[in-house]
Predict the 3D structure of the following.
Amino acid sequence: MSARAWSVAGAAIAFLYLVHVWWLAGVAEDAFISFRYARHLAQGLGLVWNPGEPPVEGYTNFLWVLLTSLFVRFDWDVPRAAQVVGALAGLAALANTGFVARGLGWKRRWALLPMGLLAISGPFAAWAGAGLETLAFTALSFAALNHAAGWARDGNAGDRFALMGALLLAALTRPEGLLVAGVLLPLAAALGLRGERARLARSVAALALAYGAYFLWRWYTFGYPLPNTFYAKTGGGLAQAQRGAAYLGYFVLHYAAPWLPALVLASWAGRVWPHFGPRDPFFVLASAFVVAWTAYVVAVGGDYMAMYRFAVPALPVLALLLASRLRQLVRSAQHGSVWLRAAAAGTLAFGALGTLLHSTPLEAFVFDVPPRMHGNYRGVETERWHVARLTRIAEGFARRAESASASVATDAIGAMGWFSGLRVYGAHGLVDPQIAHQSAAVHAVGGDYAGHDRRDLWRLFERQPTYFMFTRELRETKPEAIEVPDSYADAVASSYRLQSIWLEDPANAESGWFSFLERRDAGGRSR
């Protein structure tokens, strides 16, 4: 294949990826949490959730918050700009898989294979257009892996400097960047040239110094060594790990199982075309990265959002590892019988269609939605529905409130915080250290959706919110009362009254009465 033909084919794969991103695009509810922090930072209020309150690290993507604060300063459409950057980061990671394959000695046509595998991956496409840092972190982690392998091969100074830069940016983008560094650096040192290890050690010391300064600033500013979201979402021990194992198991079922027939056939066909396995440092580092990342996802209990967000950082690596075996299958089929060629074509088509299935409504006819998560295509639709509904509710509260000092208590703080502009109190502790640091004995972590185990309504009542949101439903008629637990009945009756406003939700093609509790001393406008 000529260089020009390779470029044209690569552009076609990139176009397929961008169409896939467009098809699954939808800003995630959690993305608006980062946007609110970015807006407050751009306004000079600092990294605070509610203006005037102490800083709380209710985000896990520091560099992404800084970047989106620039969007605010330039008065850009922040959600749309974040989606564009995410899509571009995914495009960079996709292209890099092709360049890595070429660096491993693959011919041009084979280097297209891992790119194609990423382009048809629903999780990769969905999270590129979700407005979060997922694909930026993925691109940086994969770049670090590539440069670690490059340095291990020949001790090149350019790879060493690029490795340190990618690791630093990855760690500033997400705390898991430290995990990536902890896996890659010791292995690269062990695999690399002995004479270059001293230089690597000096670079690592500089990296540690730079990140250490940031870490100390974080700890001093927020009061804890880890983000508040980590404390809010973890602490469940075995139950949490069991939820993470189930999360991983469903990912394997949905996205690895379709390729199992091709992998089995490739192993059998290896007798026809001998395959002695890759010896490049990249494959050692890549395998270690996948193992470590898998263990981490299980340990933290997985995620509840659509399309396996926590698996995305491993996808470029998995695409290359899978492509290395599929390449062997095709080469074996080219030198094998007609039956082998037909079987290879069939298993490859089955794998590709089985992967793409989850990006279409047809997945509902084959699989149930996994427990404690939104699912795949239906999960994307679910996230879109909730964001659209929460946006309309937030706008309704903004119209009703007499001032920006009014407050809303809710279990979904993202779109509410961004679109209402009011003070927002969350039930699950993502931006409330008091809830986040409650022990697992108070809240059984691991049995609910990830990030939703901790819930403290009394804490919300103590903060005396102007509005207390307890439903997202739009009804044909106004309810006369709501059912609340007996322990809250007196607090509700003495301090709050039931109110309803008419809302139109054109995105979801619904309209009706939205009901909520309003503090009795609030004089909300009815328009």
